[in-house]
């Protein structure tokens, strides 16, 4: 399993609605499929780049999909694990909505936002929201995570926990982050505000 590639950015380009980057790693060029937002943040050709990758193997192809942040790679993996959501649709979702926006749309069942992505219809959006929220909720329960935060409503606390899990953070990291930001977030009832604060705290730790 190739979890990341780091090397010289050799070329970038679009193909059939998808984008890609070729990374020269020790003289071997790895083509990594991605989306336009990632391409827009890449360094110049000839400069070093690191992409967090997920390899998808099928009968007729072996492809690498890459992102600048490990959390986006984890979310992409969650998306393509849903029945009917292939890599192309997963990339379309991540190109249309930023990772935190996409996670919130899934958790809140906002099918209108999800359906903004090319190729994602209402039924697909409903299935995506239902399957991923159910899966994350089960993972949350199995990990023994708290159901109620001391300084936020149970709904807000649960949504933030699920969002952080979807972005690839471990249950222990999630609990520590929410405990750390809770004093500063006293009285705050907006999921987005808690999520931003928790991600900022986690980023500082690493």
From TrEMBL:
Residues 152-206 are annotated as: Domain III. It comes from the Bacteria. CDD domains: UBA_RuvA_C. Its main location: cytoplasm. Residues 77-96, 112-131 form the Helix-hairpin-helix DNA-binding motif class domain. It is found in: Cytoplasm. Keywords: Cytoplasm, DNA damage, DNA recombination, DNA repair, DNA-binding. Belongs to the RuvA family. Homotetramer. Forms an RuvA(8)-RuvB(12)-Holliday junction (HJ) complex. HJ DNA is sandwiched between 2 RuvA tetramers; dsDNA enters through RuvA and exits via RuvB. An RuvB hexamer assembles on each DNA strand where it exits the tetramer. Each RuvB hexamer is contacted by two RuvA subunits (via domain III) on 2 adjacent RuvB subunits; this complex drives branch migration. In the full resolvosome a probable DNA-RuvA(4)-RuvB(12)-RuvC(2) complex forms which resolves the HJ. Has three domains with a flexible linker between the domains II and III and assumes an 'L' shape. Domain III is highly mobile and contacts RuvB. The RuvA-RuvB-RuvC complex processes Holliday junction (HJ) DNA during genetic recombination and DNA repair, while the RuvA-RuvB complex plays an important role in the rescue of blocked DNA replication forks via replication fork reversal (RFR). RuvA specifically binds to HJ cruciform DNA, conferring on it an open structure. The RuvB hexamer acts as an ATP-dependent pump, pulling dsDNA into and through the RuvAB complex. HJ branch migration allows RuvC to scan DNA until it finds its consensus sequence, where it cleaves and resolves the cruciform DNA. This is Holliday junction branch migration complex subunit RuvA.
